[in-house]
Fold these 2 entries.
Entry 1:
Amino acid sequence: MAFRSFILPFLCSLTAANAVTVYNQLPLGSQSTATDSASLASYTGSAAYNPTVLNPPPIPNPAPGTQFAINLMPTADLVPGISIEAPSSFFGLSIEMSVATQVLGLNGSFINVPFLNLMSLIIERAGEVQVRVGGNTQDYATLVGSTVDGKAIEKQSIDPNNPTATPTIIFTEELLYMLSNISSLANVKWFLGVPFNDTQNIHLEIVESGERILGDTLLGFQVGNEPDLYAQHQHRPSTYAPSDYTTEFGQWRDAWQNDANIPVKNNMIGPSLSLANWALEDVWNTGFLTDYQTQLSALSVEKYPADNCAALYAGLGTPVVPQDVYAEYLTHYSGVNIVKPMLNSTMIAQQQGKPFIMFETNSASCGGFAGVSNSFGIALWALDYGLQMVFSNFTHALVHVGGQNVYYNPFTPPPTNQSTFHQWSVGPIFYPLMIMPEILGKSNTSQVVDLWPNSGSDQTPGYAIYENNQLARVALFNYMTDPTGAMAYTANISMGGGETGQQQTVPASVKVKYLLADSVSQLWNITWANQTLGGQFEADGRLIGEEQIETVQCDTTANVCPIRVPAPGFALVMMTDDSASGSEPTGTMTFATTALTKTANTATIDQSVLETSNGHSGKDRIIGGSTSKGSSGAGKAAGITPSVTVLVAMLAGAGMFMKVFSR
Ligand SMILES: *[C@@H]1O[C@H](CO)[C@@H](O)[C@H](O)[C@H]1NC(C)=O
Ligand SMILES: *[C@@H]1O[C@H](CO)[C@@H](O)[C@H](O)[C@H]1NC(C)=O
Ligand SMILES: *[C@@H]1O[C@H](CO)[C@@H](O)[C@H](O)[C@H]1NC(C)=O
Ligand SMILES: *[C@@H]1O[C@H](CO)[C@@H](O)[C@H](O)[C@H]1NC(C)=O
Ligand SMILES: *[C@@H]1O[C@H](CO)[C@@H](O)[C@H](O)[C@H]1NC(C)=O
Ligand SMILES: *[C@@H]1O[C@H](CO)[C@@H](O)[C@H](O)[C@H]1NC(C)=O
Ligand SMILES: *[C@@H]1O[C@H](CO)[C@@H](O)[C@H](O)[C@H]1NC(C)=O
Ligand SMILES: *[C@@H]1O[C@H](CO)[C@@H](O)[C@H](O)[C@H]1NC(C)=O
Ligand SMILES: *[C@@H]1O[C@H](CO)[C@@H](O)[C@H](O)[C@H]1NC(C)=O
Ligand SMILES: *[C@@H]1O[C@H](CO)[C@@H](O)[C@H](O)[C@H]1NC(C)=O
């Protein structure tokens, strides 16, 4: 207690976002808040299922225009300030190490099928997905030969009221085998983190085992996690400074170089600042970049635009009221302001020839905000923020996944005791992960420019995307919610002209895909080109519904393609046939579920219900034999809950019980 009374005033004095991550899974029911506005029958009380629906922010006064022109250069070389080339797999995931066995699977032979399916949705668009397993827990994680109960990860419980307490976790090589086995099924690449708590006793075991087990699927190791918070969290003396971090990084570098069991010497990643207490320049000024030029494979940062820590921990002041901050996300300025402190560093990274990675981000640390972080509005925000990072020359951005006790998850497995009758819940922020590679295309040559259309309205941002120097796509946002339809806008896209005298006109027609919901505050049933991952406990990781791509006729004489964007909504405009085919998914590899672990009613399971749900590509799949609860007539007729389909598949060594459908 003395400890807390010492540390809390110090924490309160901080104005910057405090990126404390909440690790331990609080008991179900302990997270209900006074803001709950509805009670769903299935509501368990965990933040991940909080049913709060906020009011959409009012239309600004004066209202933005609803008719405006966007004139685009036909090639990237004519666009001043355009970004460097971004990879299709720009967006990836960051998974808190302590929840890895909830999200990924239990061990190398027990992998969560919905996770594989969700990764496949990204991979069929991006070619790969980059996933970081780490977080604050990595700093104290110890690789051991075995655990008492045989689990891949064991975690000691901590005081949930102490924001500075970091649980120590122990894990076995089984965790690494699980990652490796996932990569053999879906093209997932991994980042791991080293235990940086102790530079007197450097533990390189995770690097040795990681390299041996993961091989080419291992992208690199994070060395230090938010070191600018170490002093504040009492993990280092209060004097801990950027120069101390640089010195410790060097101690690790030296041990690494001298370890004969580590074949790869140049995949260290840092400094992963939270930007709460230090600026990146504070680290650059210590000689970090020149000292470790050879060993650094990427530069990293971890930034949340806000935090909800006061709602979780006593002594941090009045908790934020989510409704009060909602509008701060539903504006183009949000992403623009988040990246500002990093722009000097993305230029420095270019000069150094290093990728610059947003290693961990989401709407707000300490779990996010109810009704904000899990709303359709945050899907628009994340796409806009993501494109802003691309425009600002970031290389990748990893969206954080927490446990049951956060609002901001891209996806959440059901609570363990509900896994036999519930499926996963896919949050709105998953859709941007799937859509970004469609926006960027598959070529890894995408260059992006922020257009600031509509006289620079923050409510109607837009970006143009060029691939191989050619105009490929246009991304248009509408943050406003207006059920009357009056605030839907039409953007007149034209090409060429301008001061350069380029004569090039729009094609006869363009294809458009929409990301839609009725309101920014809608929580579930968001659609991308009419396909959805459904509602709470409804997702097995495969899209449902028929894909619908609009064709918009352009006026080639007037050189105008009029694109309507609903309020709210996002539109992706494919400016050429190539850019349309270049971003379409290649056909989904889906992982069906023939290995039933437990079922609610095994006696009457109708195998055909499962079979008909298997193997459809995202494109072709219709609701017919869905595995979603309540949506299959056949299942109902048989008197069972169709969602008894399994959460997990067994991939035991002897053979694959899990069918892999590839098309
Ligand atoms: C799951 O566990 C929680 C907490 O122990 C309990 O409140 C809840 O009723 C359980 N649900 C089911 C379906 O068993
Ligand atoms: C958009 O294009 C339409 C059809 O070409 C035209 O009537 C309208 O004036 C244009 N609006 C703007 C703001 O350019
Ligand atoms: C993996 O987990 C499953 C389910 O708990 C268990 O049956 C199996 O024995 C585990 N396998 C290993 C190798 O630990
Ligand atoms: C999966 O992981 C287990 C360790 O649990 C390992 O024995 C097995 O060989 C792996 N399977 C594949 C296909 O890599
Ligand atoms: C670092 O963490 C490990 C694992 O929790 C622990 O055993 C060790 O004592 C810690 N070292 C320091 C200096 O805190
Ligand atoms: C960019 O960072 C470098 C290295 O820390 C520093 O010298 C320079 O002043 C910074 N420039 C700006 C505009 O912040
Ligand atoms: C991104 O990099 C390009 C090429 O160096 C540069 O022209 C542009 O200004 C950079 N963008 C930002 C926002 O810093
Ligand atoms: C883009 O990059 C990814 C990841 O490195 C790679 O798998 C893919 O083949 C690349 N695509 C092209 C067209 O080069
Ligand atoms: C989502 O859509 C399905 C099918 O239209 C419907 O049954 C379900 O009630 C919807 N869920 C929500 C939360 O709106
Ligand atoms: C959208 O998907 C639904 C199934 O979810 C389907 O019934 C409907 O016809 C689709 N709409 C269009 C326009 O394709």
Entry 2:
Amino acid sequence: MSDTQTNASLFARAQEVIPGGVNSPVRAFRSVGGTPYFVARAEGPYVFDVEGRRYIDFVQSYGPSILGHAHPDVIAAIRDAAGRGTSYGAPTENEVRIAEEITSRIPGLEMLRLVSSGTEAAMSAIRLARGATGRDRIVKFAGNYHGHTDALLVAGGSGVAQQGLKGSEGVTAGAIADTIVAPFNVVPELDESVAVVCVEPVAANMGLVAPEPGFLEGLRDACDQVGAMLLFDEVITGFRLCRGGAAEWYGVQPDVWCFGKVIGGGLPMGAFGASRDIMSNLAPLGGVYQAGTLSGNPLATAAGLAALEHLTPDAYQQLTDTAARLQAGLEQAFVAAGVPAVVPRVGPLLGLFFTDVAPHDFDSAREAAENGVYARFFHGMLERGVALAPGAYEALFVSLAHGDQEIDAAIDAATEVARLL
Ligand SMILES: *Cc1c(COP(=O)(O)O)cnc(C)c1O
């Protein structure tokens, strides 16, 4: 490390040795233009780049940092765990404790298995659903993102959408032959070839698009009628909307859940779970194989447990109040400047679209995301020390560390930037 290192110099070096200079495409600023800031450290609601600039952070690692960055209890738990060894290849008490904690929060979720990412959770959950039903086909919704496993990349939101891709090269026709893509917010017709319907109960990878009343209930009924499983991908909504996630929020119980992001407390961890009956199909109990060298990693379980301990009903109220305050301030800023914009919110989850009417599916979300306004707003905010995700298809994340002061500063910045749009 040298004192003169800049975002530009690091990005130049990065591009020599890492494709696009980043280890996940959404970080590359391709859809908004410019050079990514390289983070030196983060604390509470702030990230600091290598040039010493401070940003109020609404990226929050795309969700995991729900307590704010470097929360002292999470750091202490990780330090403590690290001193006892970082991976064993044998079970630990904390794996039991986190599984007990999660199953106790979510009615119907009786067993779960820990993995190392949301992608792995979704991939494994689909294999489980196919194995348990003996069926091949899966249904997913356009603009929903379930990680980068082959069968689920088609019509993906998030970085796939930002790159203007319908899916990915390198995915065989065979890998997606059994994937059916349906429009979000329309209950698809199913038949008895369908193993599982995968949905983000609140779509948070095409901006934020809430389920319309009756959509999730309709999916539940449609699945029940043909004996298909309903999978809620709660990698974003889980432990963020409320204690029991989207299933509790909407009062609709899926058969299978996927988690990630928040549950690792900022370390790599995901999970998938279901009833005891369904989970008994997994090896070593049943014939559906799934495994992981670092699954249930001691640092990740320690961090996750420390984070979950703070996620009480009061904490969710605080997150919701913070998000509502930001929503109101942003709306006011855009109205004052005469900029067409909507700021959809579901509890603590926020989105931002530069359009008149809140999008309800991928086509309408894409229209709003591709009009070029977001990139200008993004850079205006970044210049004023407020970091949003570098892409119009992402949600805005507030944390428990975002106080009135940070929210007001972000609103002031937005008020200035809106006038320039
Ligand atoms: C982020 C995300 C994933 C993938 O999780 P990774 O940890 O990035 O693999 C899957 N589903 C949803 C809904 C997500 O937001």
